[in-house]
Every structure is written in structure tokens, then in C-alpha cells.
């Protein structure tokens, strides 16, 4: 399975193609649109989201709502393109009139400067437009199709916010809750956090930060349950599934760190506090008494819930502009002020959830014959029974 996306933030549309989704899977388009709406939401978003109303169009690979096994092609239109139709016109030649709003003052922490140097762009808008997190809308559309595939196989994924700036929204690991319970709690507020009592103080923090012209990052957690043991492999470094998941999560804009389970705490804890002791019961087979390692041993799923943590840096576009240098005059000045979010931690939690779903769907379809969903279900059910009998 593989996928690719194309499209600029203020261009006509975002486009995505995914190949490798089995034939015979019924796709609920409303569910994709709900995921897109969740990605647009959250406290601390800027004004762009008042313009956009993301809706997916499926233009290949689907017939009467059922996948054909051929590549799926998806489109999400950028409504804001109406305001940029000359400046971001894909085909009309450049003129003085349609090359206004040049970006020549690179924003620190954004792709602007290095992207310009690498691709020889003098107008850094050519970088900004693609490096913008707008692209994550189409990754969520693709990810939701993968979530629907995983759900058909009994595997559930949820992403939520665990920390905003330095304020922790819950006490860390939440293994007592299953994915459905986490979903219900985090969808009850606009911060996607578990502890409703923290909502007001985090709103205050975001409001204060916005007034100061600054931005906030945070920590995201993804939990996946009912994953069969043995996805990924210890035999070679590039077959380890935790490494692939970490790569996909790092591939989400502004993510600076990824860990599994107790993560960096494992470095200071004693071995006896870190290893998850093994238990057995005849009905369910082997299990673990705890889940400090976040569902991975030897690069393989071990049958416990997968727990992934992702650290997001604050948005690099600040209303309080930072020091930079004009790429033409080479004179120091303050970076361009562009419209921005105060924090994108809520949308990022949806995006991280979805890229995890894509990577897991890839792992499952690589491991089992997956031309048709019913055959794939049968193979996974047989495999699950074999694991219990081991
Ligand atoms: C972004 C800047 C803002 C965000 C955008 C990401 O867009 P604009 O420059 O049009 O105000 O709203 O995110 C989205 C459009 C989105 O759908 O998530 C950036 O510079 O990365």
C-alpha cells in the first residue's frame, strides 16, 4: 500500500491517491467528512477555518460506495482559492499583477528559508504554499479510509491531546479506558482532552498566548486497540513497525518528538519498572500485566494497545514577528506576519491519529493477502485464533 498527495494551501484543491485498499470495502463518505470537520475544529484556530468547509470527493476507485481494489483518488477543494485565483493560478504566465504578495522575509521555524535555498525559489510563497499544514486535510481523508479498513478488522484508533504548552491535560497513561471511552470523553470538549476540569484553564492559557501574539505546542497521544501480536518484525531494522510508525508521526508538520508507552521515562526507570511481565489464560492466550512499552517488543506489536506520544512545537507563524533577514536585500528585519492559529494541537491530534491508521493499514495489508476485504478478514481471524492457541 502506498499513497501520495498533491496541492498547495491556496491552490485550487488538495488531491490524494492511495493504492492497496482491498476490494469490497464499503466506504462511509460521511465518516470521512466528520474526520475532516474534526481536523478543522479545536480551540485556538485562526480565521482560515471560517473560510474552509472541507468535504471529500472520491473520483476514482469507488463504485456505488464500495472499493474496487484499484487506486482511490480523493479531492478536497480549497475554498480560499477563490481569493487567490490569480496569484495561485496553475497555468497563467507570471505577470506583475499576479505575483504580488511575494514572501521574501523567511519566518524562523518554518520551511521558508531552506526551501527557497534548496529549490532556488526567490518568492518564498512557492515554499510556504506546500509546506503549510493545509496538506494534512487530504492525509486525514486518506487516513479515515484506512481507519474504516482497520475497523472492519476490529482495530480501533484514537488520537487526543495530552498537554497544551506546559499544562498537562491528564495524568499520563490511560490504559483503563478503551478507545470508545476515550473518544466519548475527548469529543465532549473543544480541546480533545480527557479531563473536562482542565478545559477552562487551558482556554485561558490559549487566550493569553493569543493576546501576547505568541503560539503554543503540546503533546498528543494515540491509542490503538485490538491489534494482533506480530505485526512488524525484529529480523531487520527496516522491518520494525514501531520505527515506521515513528517516521509517519514525525512526518506530520511541527512534530519534533515521538515516543512509545512511557517513552523517555524508560531511560530513568529501573528495568524491573519498565518490562511488562507476561501472563497467560487459556481463553485469550498470552498477555502482559502492564503496558509500559506501549505495545511493542522487538519492533513487533505484542498484542497490548499501541500507545504513541508525539511532541508538537508551537506554530512558527507569530503575530509577534521574530528576527529574520530579507532574502534579496540581506538586511535584517522582522519576519512576515501571516494569518495563523494560536495552537494547532487539536487538529494535529487528528492528523497524527490518521497517519498512524495509514501505517497500520499498510502493515496489515503487507502481512496478509489483501485483494479482497472478506478474504483479508478471514486471514486475520485465522491468525488471531492461531495466536490464542500458541
Ligand atoms: C498554515 C497557515 C494557516 C492555517 C493553515 C496552516 O493558513 P492561512 O495562511 O491560509 O491562514 O490555517 O492550515 C490550514 C489551512 C488547514 O486547513 O489546516 C501554515 O502556514 O502552515
UniProtKB/TrEMBL annotation:
Pfam families per the UniProt record, alphabetical: Chorismate_synt
Pathway: Metabolic intermediate biosynthesis; chorismate biosynthesis; chorismate from D-erythrose 4-phosphate and phosphoenolpyruvate: step 7/7
GO biological process annotation, one example: aromatic amino acid family biosynthetic process
The keyword Flavoprotein is assigned to this record: yes
Keyword terms of this UniProt record: Amino-acid biosynthesis, Aromatic amino acid biosynthesis, FAD, Flavoprotein, FMN, Lyase, NADP
Alphabetized PROSITE patterns for the sequence: CHORISMATE_SYNTHASE_1
GO terms assigned for molecular function: chorismate synthase activity; FMN binding
Residues annotated for FMN binding in this entry: 130-132, 253-254, 298, 313-317, 339
One Gene Ontology term, aspect cellular component: cytosol
Highest taxon, organism lineage: Bacteria
EC number: 4.2.3.5
Stored InterPro entries: Chorismate_synth (IPR000453), Chorismate_synth_AroC_sf (IPR035904), Chorismate_synthase_CS (IPR020541)
Binding-site residues, NADP(+): 39, 45
Reactions that this protein is recorded to catalyse: 5-O-(1-carboxyvinyl)-3-phosphoshikimate = chorismate + phosphate
Cofactor: FMNH2
Cofactor binding: number and manner: Reduced FMN (FMNH(2)).
Keyword field contains Metal-binding: no
Family: Belongs to the chorismate synthase family.
Record's function text: This reaction introduces a second double bond into the aromatic ring system.
Quaternary structure note: Homotetramer.
Identification of the protein by name: Chorismate synthase
Gene: aroC
